[in-house]
Amino acid sequence: MSCGNAHETDCSEVLGHLYEYLDNEMSEDACAKFRQHFDECHPCLEKYGLEQAVKKLVKRCCGSDDVPTDLRSKVMMRIELIRSGESVPEPETVTPTEAPSA
Questions:
Q1: Is 93 a member of any domain?
Q2: CA-CA distance, 102 to 94, in Å (whole number)?
Q3: Mapping DSSP to helix (H, G, I), strand (E, B) and coil, where does residue 59 land?
Q4: Calpha distance 7→15 (Å, rounded)
């Protein structure tokens, strides 16, 4: 996505690192570049606002749910495999016909 205007920080870079910005996982210098970009670029500002609203909604609806222990351990194991450079098997998926009925 690009608004068509030239910016110091390209729209694709901003959108590619949007969750790092939302999660405060960037340096202050990088955050300042992103804030400047949002001041100049309405489409990216809209995308930021949408993603921020979704993040707040998910937190409000699911933020108090406990993560199952086995899920947490599986996620941590996959993270360690990725960090070590090992190949990571594709996660198992359940098709709608296999899903248990409630």
A1: no
A2: 15
A3: helix
A4: 13
φ, ψ of residue 9 in degrees (nearest 5)? -110, 120
Q: How far apart are CA 35 and CA 14, in angstroms?
A: 10
Residue 70, domain member (yes or no): yes
d(CA 85, CA 67): 26
Q: What is the pLDDT of residue 100?
A: 54
pLDDT at 98: 56
Q: Do 41 and 5 contact (CB within 8 A), yes or no?
A: yes
The model's pLDDT over 26-64, given as tens digits with 9 standing for 90+, comes to: 999 999 999 999 999 999 999 999 999 988 888 888 767
Token representation of residue 35: 């804030």
Residue 37 is part of which domain span? 11-84
- Record the tokens describing residue 63, joined without a space: 């933020």
Q: What is d(CA 52, CA 23) in angstroms, rounded to the nearest whole number?
A: 10
User: Which pTM was predicted?
Assistant: 0.57
Cβ 25 vs Cβ 17: under 8 Å: no
